[in-house]
Write a structure and sequence with these properties.
The protein is an alpha/beta fold. The protein has eleven helices and 15 strands. The longest helix is centred in the middle third of the chain and has 16 residues.
Amino acid sequence: MIETRALRKVYPAPPHRRAIPRGGAQFAPPAPRHTPVGTRVSGGIAALDSLDLSVRQGEFFGLLGPNGAGKTTTIGILTTRIRATSGDAIVAGANVRTEDVAVRRRIGVVPQRPNPDRGLNVIENLLFHGAYFGLSSGLAERRAMALLDQFDITDKAHAKVDDLSGGQQQRLMIARALLHEPNVIFLDEPTVGLDPQARHTLWDLLRQLHADGRTIVMTTHYMEEADELCDRLAIIDHGKLLACDTPAKLKAQAPGQTLIDLTLSGDIAAAVEWCRAVPGVTAVDATGVALRAYSERGSEAIPALIHACEDAGCRVENINLSKPSLETLFISLTGRKLD
């Protein structure tokens, strides 16, 4: 259903601020409101770096990664909002570069933040979307009411959008995306900002859509969400594909030892060397003030690690344990936590 080959996106580097000359009143142009996150390359910032992906028909596919990993850029290219610098992408049989209109007719998109027309009520939002895709008013209304009933917001059909809760607005966005019966549904971090109850309600809705045979592509940075919903997951960071498989097989690739996170104050480089000598510790690395140690002994290694850090002149501020999981796999691949 979806295939990308060597997909690459390089954004222009932000302009350098000009120095103010002596005696002058020259000012630099204002900084851009958003600077793309990614790997700096010659001439810009690479948000995607030769990304190869394949999504099967009827699959619930997840893109997992932290902010700035390239998830939203990938969705933007696949939904024709962003033009790739190089590489190819095929969605539902159409090339996103040369057949963008055909792609847009075959996809439904649920944005990260709900963006309904607030000048229209709920049903009017859906009817307007149907007209955009050439549906007759009668067909659009029948489909709209059926979707509102399926998503349990029929009683809100004539309500103002601002009267809906966050979860109800997101359900409206999914109904809008489904109205023209697309081949693929794209969801960009659909549960960001929702409370736990609304998030689980949306999970149930997405499971129902998947059970109906829909092909769904979702970006998320919630480990639990990815594990619960997706048939397969692609873990990406800095625009690169790090791993792609079922959640169960990915978790099986996680380091078999317990991950021990220690937040330190002091000379962390010295603490790394001391901790590597602790019996039962198989690997140690550090980022900023966080020291990470993998141990076969689990919590039994903590006292020895604390003593090693103190011997190195550091003070332990906080300790956290993690069993093998998607998160420990992600940390082992990227050297940093998902959040």
